Structure formats: structure tokens, C-alpha cells
Amino acid sequence: QMHSIAYDLDGRLWYTIHTANDLGFLGSIGYLTPDWRFLTRFPPLSDFAGIGAGSAAGIAVDPVSGDMWFCEFWRKRLGRLRHVPPLP
Fold first, then answer.
1. Any idea of the CA torsion for 6, 43, 76, 59, to the nearest 10 degrees?
2. Which residues, including other chains, have CB under 8 Å from residue 77's CB and lie 6 or more apart?
3. Which residues of 59-87 are buried (b: 16+ CB within 10 A; e: fewer)?
4. Strands across the sheet with 59-61, in order?
5. Separation CA 21–CA 77 (nearest Å)
6. Nearest CA to 83 among 69, 65, 70?
């Protein structure tokens, strides 16, 4: 179940997945490149330490730093991915 989207400074479309299935919550984040050639999904948030189910329920880009911020809804915390400009 897709939840939120946001474009970063490099034109990638980031998304959050807030999903429940028989295995539990498998929330994750990922992005699609501007040319649609690459779709990336990071490991489920449930793979990382935390109290509560891993879930992603919102995403936003910092317009100055380019960092991506996302909500871990069930864990009641924010996550951040630091922006690293692509190589030329």
C-alpha cells in the first residue's frame, strides 16, 4: 500500500509503503529515477531496531539540504536519509 510521494533535488520520485500482510508490517521507502530506468526499494523498516512495527507513512524533502525525512508511524519517530549528490 503506497502512502506518500515527494520529489528530491535530483528529480527522483520517493515513495513510502505502509503495508500489512501475513508476515506483519513491511513498511519501506524507495525511489524511482527521472528516466524511469531504476526503481529502488530499501529493506523493510521492520529489519531495523525499534519498538513497534516498522511502517512508513509520510515523506518530505528538505529544500536546502536535500535530505529526505519520513515518518515511522507505529514507532512514533522520524527517519532521515542524507542527500548525497550523484557523481557526474
1. 0
2. 50, 71
3. bebeeeeebbebbbbbbeeebebeeeeee
4. 59-61, 68-72, 77-81
5. 22
6. 65
Take residue 78 and report the three cell numbers written for it: 522520524
Q: Amino acid identity of 78?
A: L
The mean pLDDT of the chain is 86
Encoded amino acid at 45, one letter = L
The answer to whether 18 and 5 have CB atoms below 8 angstroms apart is no
Query: In residues, how long is the chain?
Result: 88
The whole-angstrom separation of Cα 16 and Cα 70 is 8
Q: Are 54 and 70 in contact (CB under 8 A)?
A: no
pLDDT tens, position by position, 26-85: 788 999 999 999 998 888 888 888 888 778 889 999 999 999 999 988 888 999 999 887
Contact 26, 54 (CB under 8 A): yes
Q: What is the pTM of this model?
A: 0.81
